[in-house]
Amino acid sequence: MTELDSKSVIAWLRLLGEVYGQKKDYLTDLDAAIGDADHGANMARGFAAVATKLDALEGKDIGTIFKTAAMTLLSTVGGASGPLYGSFFLQAATVANGKNALTAADVGAALDAGIKAVVSRGKAQVGDKTMLDALLPALAAYQEAVVNGLVPALQKAVEAAKAGSASTQPLIAKKGRASYLGERSAGHLDPGAESSAFLLDALLTTASK
Ligand SMILES: Nc1ncnc2c1ncn2[C@@H]1O[C@H](COP(=O)(O)OP(=O)(O)OP(=O)(O)O)[C@@H](O)[C@H]1O
Ligand SMILES: [Mg+2]
């Protein structure tokens, strides 16, 4: 598809409920190594709660859908990642306000607003071993490829997110709970970087249909 309509946005969020359900143990195991073993449960709980809201959102504009997802994540996820993913969707909602379809450029603007909100809330940068190691390179790759259209740009974004997440393995965490471990945080993938790569991968899957 060349645009992401509101039905596709609902399908994406529904898919995320399934994906985080399937990846719950994987993400929790990653968080057990460098955090408090709750990231998988947090994401599964949050997106399962989002999934329960989706039927009632049929026919609504994408801003409303993102805003509902944001409020649901803020109230159900907790920890560090709840406010971060909540801010992502809340700021993406401002770009999507009143729209029933997002062009490739609109998706870029929504990703830009959402990811910048994660930066401003978490105060992390590339190399700090957080979800931003996946999200920031993904945003740059998306913007570079946006002229080629939605799906090609998302393909580049997902490649960059996966590579960015893989790059967290040797890093020493500078932000969040993992930073308390200092050098002992090296040698493990960051759970939030992995969950962010899944988020974009699910968007690509949905947009490719
Ligand atoms: N300041 C930050 N900026 C961006 N991402 C962050 C930041 N702090 C943590 N994260 C991300 O959040 C992920 C951890 O999320 P999780 O759901 O496990 O929350 P938590 O760290 O256990 O929260 P808390 O410590 O408050 O219980 C990390 O893997 C990292 O990617
Ligand atoms: Mg945790």
Structural description of this entry:
- It is a single chain.
- The protein is mainly alpha-helical and 209 residues long.
- The protein has one domain (4-207): Serine Threonine Protein Phosphatase 5, Tetratricopeptide repeat (Alpha Horseshoe).
- The chain is 67% helix and 2% strand.
- The chain has a two-stranded antiparallel sheet with strand order 1-2.
- α5 packs antiparallel against α6 (104-122) and α7 packs parallel to α9 (191-207).
- The longest helix has 19 residues, at 104-122.
- Bound molecules: adenosine-5'-triphosphate (ATP) and magnesium ion (MG).
How would you summarize the topology of this molecule?
Blueprint: E1 4-5, H1 6-22, H2 24-34, H3 39-53, H4 62-76, H5 81-96, E2 101-102, H6 104-122, H7 132-145, H8 150-166, H9 191-207
Antiparallel strand pairs: 1-2
Helix pairs in contact: 1-3, 1-9, 2-3, 2-9, 3-4, 4-5, 5-6, 6-7, 7-8, 7-9, 8-9
This protein binds adenosine-5'-triphosphate and magnesium ion.
Adenosine-5'-triphosphate (ATP) is lined by residues 31, 35-36, 38-39, 42, 79-81, 84, 118, 122-124, 130-132, 175-177, 190-193.
**Spatial strand sequence of the major β-sheet:** 1-2
- Provide the domain count: 1
**Total count of helical runs of at least 4 residues:** 9
Largest sheet: 2 strands, antiparallel
Radius of gyration: 16 Å
Helix percentage range: 55-70%
Give the names of the bound compounds. Answer: adenosine-5'-triphosphate, magnesium ion
**What would you call the shape?**
globular
